Amino acid sequence: MDQHNYHTETLWKAFFTTLMITILGAVMLFGYLLLEEEIRQYINRPVYTQDQLNKIAKNREVSRNKERADNWDLVENGIHVKTGLKSDPNLKLIISSCTSCHSAKLITQNRATRQGWKSMIDWMQETQGLNDLGDKEPIILDYLAEYYAPTELGRRENLDIETIEWYILNLEESN
Ligand code: HEC
After folding, report:
1. 85 in contact with ligand 1, CB cutoff 6 A
2. 77-147 sits in which CATH class?
3. DSSP state for residue 75 in the 8-state scheme
C-alpha cells in the first residue's frame, strides 16, 4: 500500500513538474512572440563607444544648426528663431530697421509702453545716429507696444465701488 502511494506520488510530481515546465515554456514563447521585434532590436543594437556617441551627437547638432541657419524665416512658437523677435507681418521691417546696430536682444529684453518705446527711439536718434524712421515709425511702435508692453500694466480691473460690500469695523465688540 505504502509502496503504491509512493509510486503515485512520484508520478504526480513528475506530471506536475512537466506541466509547470510546459506552461513556463508556453509563457516564455508567448512573451517572445509578443516582444520579438524589441528583443531583436536590443540584440542587434549597434554598440558605440562614448567617443562615437559624442561625434554622432555633435554631427546631429551641426546639421540641425545648419538647417536652422538656412531657414532664415523659421518661426517656432510664434518666435522668429534667428532673432528671437515675436513673429508678425511687419517683422521684416523691424529686423531691417532695428537690428543693424545691435542685437535684437536689446528689444526682446525691454518692456515699455508705446510712449516709452518712442522715447527710446528718440534717444537713439538724438545720441546714437539712428535715422529718421519716417512713416515706418508708427508701424514699428505698434509692433513694439503690442509685443513688448510692460507686463504689469492694465492687468487689474478697476474696482467697481458700487458692487463692493462694505462693512463697519466695530472695534468695541472685538474686545
Ligand atoms: C544707428 C544704430 C541703431 C539703430 C538702427 C537702432 N539702434 Fe537701438 N541702440 C543703438 C545704440 C548704440 C544703443 C545703445 C547700446 C548699448 O547700450 O549697448 C541702442 C540701444 C537700444 C535699446 C536699449 C535702450 C535702453 O534704454 O536700454 C533698445 C531697446 C533699442 N536700442 C531698440 C531699438 C529699436 C526698437 C530699433 C529700431 C527702431 C533700434 N534700436 C535701432 C543704436 C541703434
Report:
1. no
2. mainly alpha
3. E
- How far does the centroid of ligand 1 lie from the alpha carbon of residue 110, in Å? 11
| Gap between the Cα atoms of 172 and 175, Å rounded | 6
Instruction: Write the pLDDT tens digit of every residue in 47-96.
Output: 888 999 999 999 999 998 888 777 888 899 999 988 999 999 999 999 99
pLDDT in tens, 6-47: 888 899 999 999 999 999 999 999 999 999 989 888 888 888
Determine whether 81 is exposed, middle or buried from the number of CB atoms within 10 Å of its CB (0-12, 13-18, 19+). middle
Pocket test for ligand 1, best of 83, 97, 106 (most atoms within 8 A of CB): 106
**C-alpha cell at position 46:** 549597434
Q: Whose CA is nearest to atom 34 of ligand 1?
A: 98
Asked if 102 and 123 touch (Cβ cutoff 8 Å), the reply is: no
The reported pTM is 0.60
| Other C-beta atoms lying within 10 Å of the C-beta of residue 110 | 13
d(CA 140, CA 145): 9
Look up residue 167 and give its amino acid. Y
Distance CA 120, CA 130 (A): 11
